[in-house]
């Protein structure tokens, strides 16, 4: 018996044992009882439109880390100040996330409770993100520290206004989580 066939047999025994533990008779039986109703299915273009928010959600906040390198190596800001400049906005962000969730959950408007915040937050985050990269040359270390600290706090606030309702909207696209 080859090593591959031994691994296949072990895998089948493990799957069968797991299904026995779940009270199932065959593979995939536990999924057969869940069929999404036609009216609860999300159209492909709606999935794509929602998914584009993930691009922003993942790239903008991650790119702020690149700015820390530029502050330190490009503008000569002390690494301790760079660390502090990156930590303070995140502390503020940790406080504003739950607050934004509460505000979004409580909102009633003709555009829904999520969309107005997603729209406004995207604009604020985008504009402040661009402004963060417009650093003039020849300023003091403390000037760069305060510019980045205040600018990234504004950015993370806009990001919170965008991302918190955007994530919540994903759970509301369909009542069926399967």
Describe the structure.
- Helix 3 runs antiparallel to helix 6 (141-172) and helix 5 runs antiparallel to helix 6 (141-172).
- This protein folds into two domains: 3-32; 38-172.
- It has six helices and no strands.
- The protein starts with a helix and ends in a 6-residue tail after the last helix.
- The chain is flat, with a radius of gyration of 24 Å.
- The protein is an all-alpha fold and 178 residues long.
Helix/strand layout:
Layout: H1 3-22, H2 29-32, H3 44-74, H4 79-106, H5 115-132, H6 141-172
Helix pairs in contact: 3-4, 3-6, 4-6, 5-6
Features:
mainly alpha, 178 residues, 6 helices, flat
Tell me the Rg in angstroms.
24 Å
Taken in chain order, the helices and strands follow as HHHHHH
Sheet-strand content, in percent, reads under 5%
General form = flat
C-alpha termini separation: 40 Å
**Count of strand segments:** 0
The biggest beta sheet reads: none
How many H/I helical runs? 6
Helix content: over 70%
**Overall pLDDT score:** 85
How many structural domains? 2
Residue runs with pLDDT of under 50 for 5 or more positions: none
Task: Specify the structural class.
Answer: mainly alpha
Short description:
The chain is mainly alpha-helical and 178 residues long.
